[in-house]
Each structure stands twice: as structure tokens, then as C-alpha cells.
Specification:
The complex is a heterodimer of chains A (320) and B (355). Chain A is an alpha/beta fold. In chain A, 18% of the residues lie in helices and 34% in strands. In chain B, helix 11 packs antiparallel against helix 13 (323-331). The chains are: A alpha/beta (320), B alpha+beta (355). At the A-B interface, strand 7 of A face strand 6 of B.
Chain lengths: 320, 355
């Protein structure tokens, strides 16, 4: 089977945090304990949205050691393809859903002498779990969290109250920003840097750290790409000998799954490499949106990551 | 069934023996009449009743004696068990995985009682009844990995996952097929596999690493590996080669069936939840050629595999000098008959099978 082991859950609580973000809490339907997990892990949540089966990854933000419940926080994306809107509008307390086992693509490096965390907006969620994990083991960490304003800074006041010395919050509306160069300069040897937030922020922090001479291995980031909408296109699946249509608001991976073809996946966000698929032939242009393939691989026309990438043109034949 | 534990040795007088039960459930590693490397992974979620694949951590008649042998190896050479400082959390993960698995899979042998972080562990075969605080190292006589792997058959490599690689950062290695934890500690997946011939150019390691890095919580995997060992010796380590290497020259056509053992490793892979590490248990099963050929299909197939094995693999696996003697022995039991697909004994398919 593709993907990961699934867990049947019941929605036990829905907590709106602010105008954009809502927390969803789950307990297992079978009454058993959840597996423990490591801070930074995500689960893939399955949503039966009418005819469409959506599968979106969300970082677990509950305490990794708490096996009685899992929690995720979902930012409403009015421009997105509909997964977050479905969570916000159509999910109610008591609903039964399927989630995956936890998968961690943004793990703490446990060798670090210090963990320096940079969060932007909803990118705070994986750090919530990592901070709980590190607090239990007396880990050395520091969080710098940028948000538009106090109202939209999810968990900002909670974090400040619990960790007044470790948490620093910056509000864009007040023209506050992280003094990144000075911050990076003042870190002790052995510090690892973690970034989760919008693409612009990730690039800014990575570039600044690189220029400051930080080793590649000490810089960790997570950016889940939401699959982009685009023009519909047609794909031939050679192994399955079928021709499928990819809809405007559907990813290629979702279209493959909807056709009943079992395809591997883990993150569904262009980061983990599991869904890498060989291209047998094509006449047209690839719209590569992933972090996985190298630029050479993207240019070669031999591979595509169907979770986030699309195609425009006459024909595309995949080895699937 | 309740297990009768053997009183036996894996050194000096070598009183190790397999019962008929152990012979019939031996994990014969060849599913066809020839062998080449492959990743050959499958899910580790049970298997036929009574087989070594059935439980998450197989316990058999050699358990108590193997643990005695491990204690002896560690007393002579404490560096067989090492854990770099950042691997302690993975050690707790492993302790939890084994205690939960064994107490659920063998409730007559092992008990785990948990009240929040106050745990009590009862290991009846080894006469252990310890209470401790989970995640508090000071409440155990050893670190968590060493504590639990002194009570669990098989070697354990505990791997850290970072920088798109796996790192050999902790382990308990006392029953190994000629490799050294003390040498490999801190190495990454490609570094510690560098000595294996042929596999690199076949692209096997890149594929295997990709597979292992995506092993998920709740979805462990397994494969079999094999080699040949003279005498039922668990500790065939480089550190002690001067003691066991010489034994390879003491085989004769008269004693080959008794001395030459097929050594099979059941390798399993579990994601460790709290640390995001990966544990790689390597469980060693030994069977003499005399016992192995009591299963006619296995005797015929092993003859064909050993006879046709590429020279560099026989060299790497350390039996190139003894191969002619082994083939002579096995040729006598190979009547040329067909062998059924798969690894199972299939005694009912033999011509003289009793109805």
C-alpha cells in the first residue's frame, strides 16, 4: 500500500484562535492511545469533500508525549483549493475522520547545543510540539516568531506567558522585524537553526545564515507547498494503461488516486520525494513546483512530483 | 506454547543445539535456487503462526543462553555497546518498543506495568523484576538501550536520521557477522556499507537508504541476510578474529556437517517515535548443515546456491576456502529434484512424504 498507516479519529474540540486560524483536536475512535511522536512531525488528514477525497498535511502541535489526543491548527486559505476551507466550514465536533501516522520531515537535530527557531505566521505549529518536547528534557532553545499583529499571532500570548525568556514576538503592523544578522552572530557554537513560515521568510533566513557562514547541516526548514491550481490536463498512465484527466483544482496525485491507482506518497507537499514518478514521454511543458528534484532533473523531463507539479501541453505519459 | 530454554554454549565446548521445533521454524533465506543481492524488503507485520516472523521480537529456545553469552562478551569488551550522547532518547524509544511488544506478544514470559512514568518490568526467563522511572536514566542499572538489549536476542544498531542520511550513532553489537560497532560508530549509511562488493555499482544502497528513511511509525519492515559460520559462534567479530578465524581451518570432510553452520540474520526496521531515529535489530539464527539437510528441499537448494555463488560474494562472506568441502557435502543430498518456490520446508511435497 502507498502512503502511511491510518488512524481513525473523532473530532473532539474545535477552537477558533483568531480570524484565520482554528485548532482541531482529535481522539482515537477505538479509544486506544495515539503513538507518541517527535516534535516537527505532521499527519495527513483525509477529507471527504463531496466527490473529492482531499489529503492535506498539517503539523502536529500538541504535546508529543501526550498520547490521549492529537491537535492541529489550520489556517484558512481563501485562495487555496479548498482543503482548509473544508476544515473550517464543514468539520464539526463528533465527526469521524482518518489521519495518517505521524511522519517527521522537520525533526530536531538532537546533537544541537542550542535550537534557534524562526517562525512566521502559521509556521509556528511544528515549533509548538518541539518546544513541548524540549521543555521536558531541559533543552536549550529560543523562538523568534513574526506575525502580522497580536490578534493574528496564534499561541503568541500563551508562549510568552509560559516561556518569557525564550520567546520573542515581532509584529509586522508595528514595523517590528527580526534583527537576523545580529541574532545569528550571537549564537553559541553548535547551534542549529530551524525555519518554518512563508517562502520569502525561509529564503531570507537561509540566505542570511549561509552568508554568515553557517554550515548547511545546521540549517533546517520546512515549507509545505500547497498544490497549485492550474489548467486541466490529460495524462496517460502506462503501467495501469489508462488515460486520466487532471482537473483545475485537483493535483496530479489526487487525479491518479481518484482513478483507483495506488501511488506512493508521504508529505503531499513536494518535500519528501516519495511520489517521484518517471516520465516516459511528453510533448509540452512541466510546471515543477517541488523542493525535491534538482534543477537538472527538472530540466531533463524524466521525472515529476505529482503531489504539487503540473503539466501544460499535448501529451504526458507516466510510468505509473 | 511455553518455551523450554536450552542450557547451551556458543563458545569453547559449543553445546548449542537446535530442537526439531527450531529446525522446522528456521528462517531459510533462499526463495529460489540462486542468490544475488537485493533490497528484498517486506512489511514486518506478523507471519505464519510459529514462524520467526510472527512476533515483533522473536523469542526462542536459545534466549537465556544467548543473553548469557552477550553478558560474557560485554564483560570482556565493553565497547560492544555504545551510545553517543544525543541517542539517549532513541534508547528510551527502543526500551519502550521492546517492553510493550514483548509483554503483549509473550504475556506468559514478560510483564510491563505502567502508571504514568512509574514502570515495572518483569522478565521471567531471566528472573528480572525492576521498577524504574521512564526517561530517568538514574533509575536503571544501565542506559536504556543497554538495559533492554541485554535482555533481547539479536544485535541492535540504533540510527539517527538527519541530513538525508542515517548515522550509526548507537548500538549493542555482540553477535555480528564480522563487523565492528567501535569501528563504525558515527558513520553514515554509505560509509559503513563501503566494504560490500558489487552492491554499490548496482545502485542498491541509494535505493535501500531511500526506503529506510521513509520507514514509518506503525509500519516496520524486514529482510533476511545470510552468511556461513564455522561452529555455532555468535560473536564472530573483527575484534576476536584471532580466536575464531583459525577455526575455519579445522573443518574436515568428516566434521563439515556438524561444524559448518548457515547463519541467517532476520533484519527488521522500526521507526522510533520520540527521537525520529530508526532501530535496526539484526537477529542471528544458526543451523548446522546436518540439521539443515534434514529438510530435503533446503539441502538441495543450498547446494545449488553455494555452488553457483559468484566468487567475490563467497570471498566477502568468508567461506571461499571451504567452499569445495561444503559443496561436496551438499552435493550428496541434491538428487536433482525440483524445489518448490518460497522459503518454507514443504515436507509434504517430498516424494517419500508420509500422507
Amino acid at each position: 500500500m502507498s502512503g502511511v498507516e491510518k488512524i481513525a479519529v473523532r473530532v473532539t474540540n474545535i477552537v477558533p484562535l483568531n480570524a484565520l486560524v482554528t485548532r482541531f483536536e482529535f481522539k482515537r475512535s477505538d479509544g486506544l492511545h495515539f503513538p507518541t511522536f517527535s516534535g516537527g512531525a505532521h499527519v495527513v488528514v483525509e477529507m471527504q469533500d463531496g466527490e473529492i477525497l482531499r489529503r492535506n498535511p498539517y503539523s502536529l502541535m500538541s504535546d508529543p508525549a501526550d498520547q490521549s489526543q492529537y491537535a492541529i491548527s489550520v489556517r484558512r486559505d481563501d485562495e487555496g483549493r479548498g482543503g482548509s476551507l473544508f476544515m473550517h466550514r464543514s468539520v464539526s465536533v463528533g465527526d469521524e475522520m482518518l489521519i495518517s501516522n505521524p511522519v517527521n520531515l522537520f525533526a530536531l537535530d538532537l546533537r544541537a547545543r542550542k535550537h534557534l527557531m524562526i517562525a512566521g505566521g502559521i509556521g509556528i505549529t511544528p515549533f509548538m510540539a518541539q518546544i513541548k518536547q524540549l521543555s521536558r528534557t531541559n533543552g536549550n532553545w529560543e523562538l523568534h516568531y513574526a506575525s502580522r499583529n497580536a490578534a493574528l499571532a496564534s499561541y503568541g500570548s500563551e508562549l510568552m506567558a509560559q516561556h518569557p525568556n525564550g520567546v520573542h514576538i515581532y509584529y509586522d503592523d508595528d514595523k517590528q522585524s527580526i534583527a537576523l544578522e545580529a541574532l545569528l552572530k550571537g549564537q553559541p557554537l553548535g547551534t542549529h537553526l530551524y525555519i518554518c513560515g512563508p517562502k520569502g521568510m525561509i529564503n531570507w533566513v537561509r540566505d542570511t545564515a549561509k552568508k554568515a557562514g553557517w554550515p548547511h547541516e545546521a540549517i533546517h526548514y520546512e515549507e509545505f507547498l500547497a498544490p497549485q491550481s492550474g489548467k486541466p490536463f490529460e495524462v496517460k498512465l502506462a503501467q495501469s494503461s489508462m488515460v486520466i484527466q487532471v482537473g483545475e483544482n485537483q493535483s496530479l496525485l489526487e487525479a491518479i488516486e481518484a482513478a483507483g491507482v495506488d501511488a506512493p506518497y508521504l508529505c503531499r507537499g513536494g518535500a519528501c520525494g516519495q511520489c517521484e514518478t518517471a516520465v516516459i514521454g511528453y510533448d509540452g511543458k512541466f510546471l515543477h513546483n517541488d523542493h525535491w528534484l534538482t534543477n537538472e532533473e527538472k530540466a531533463s523531463g524524466h521525472k515529476i512530483m505529482p503531489c504539487v507539479s503540473r503539466f501544460e501541453g499535448k501529451t504526458l505519459v507516466l510510468d505509473r | 506454547m511455553s518455551i523450554q530454554f536450552n542450557d547451551e554454549t556458543f563458545r569453547d565446548d559449543y553445546t548449542f543445539r537446535n530442537s526439531d521445533w527450531a529446525i522446522n521454524r528456521f528462517p531459510f533465506p533462499f526463495h529460489e535456487d540462486h542468490y544475488m543481492y537485493s533490497v528484498n524488503m517486506e512489511q514486518h507485520r506478523g507471519g505464519p503462526e510459529g514462524s520467526v516472523f510472527e512476533k515483533r521480537f522473536d523469542v526462542d529456545e536459545h534466549y537465556v543462553a544467548e543473553m548469557r553469552d552477550r553478558a560474557q562478551v560485554l564483560a570482556d569488551d565493553p565497547l560492544r555497546c555504545q551510545s553517543l550522547p544525543h541517542m539517549t532518547l532513541a534508547g528510551w524509544d527502543l526500551l519502550e518498543l521492546i517492553m510493550v511488544s514483548k509483554s503483549e506478544d509473550y504475556p506468559d514470559l514478560f510483564e510491563l506495568h505502567r502508571d504514568d512514568d512509574k514502570w515495572r518490568w518483569v522478565n521471567k526467563p531471566l528472573g528480572i523484576d525492576d521498577s524504574f522511572t521512564f526517561m530517568d536514566e538514574t533509575t536503571l542499572p544501565y542506559g536504556p538501550m543497554e538495559y533492554i538489549t541485554r535482555q533481547t536476542q539479536g544485535d541492535f544498531a540504533v540510527l539517527d536520521q538527519r541530513d538525508d542520511n542515517l548515522w550509526m550513532d548507537a548500538g549493542m553489537i555482540t553477535t555480528q557477522a564480522d563487523w565492528s560497532l567501535d569501528f563504525d560508530i558515527g558513520m553514515n549509511f554509505f560509509e559503513w556499507h563501503a566494504p560490500v562488493p558489487k552492491a554499490n555499482e548496482m545502485g542498491i544502497f541509494v535505493r535501500a537508504l531511500k526506503f529506510l528513511m521513509s520507514v514509518q511509525q506503525g509500519a516496520p519492515a524486514r529482510r533476511l541476510n545470510w552468511t556461513m559460520t564455522v561452529n555455532p559462534l555468535l560473536d564472530t567479530s573483527p575484534e576476536n578474529y584471532h580466536k575464531w578465524g583459525i577455526q575455519k581451518t579445522q573443518m574436515t570432510p568428516e566434521n563439515v556437517g556438524e561444524k559448518q553452520h548457515l547463519r541467517v540474520e532476520l533484519q527488521t526496521f522500526f521507526r522510533l517515535p520520540r527521537s525520529n531515529g530508526l532501530v535496526f535489530p539484526i537477529r542471528c539464527y544458526l543451523i548446522s548443515l546436518d540439521d539443515l539437510t534434514s529438510i530435503p528441499k533446503w539441502g538441495r537448494r543450498l547446494h545449488r546456491v553455494i555452488r553457483d555463488l559468484p566468487e567475490e560474494l563467497a570471498t566477502y562472506k568468508g567461506f571461499i576456502d571451504n567452499r569445495p568441502m561444503i559443496i561436496d557435502y551438499l552435493a550428496k543430498v541434491d538428487n536433482g529434484a525440483e524445489t518448490s518456490p518460497g522459503i518454507w520446508p514443504d515436507l509434504h511435497l517430498e516424494p517419500d512424504a508420509k500422507a
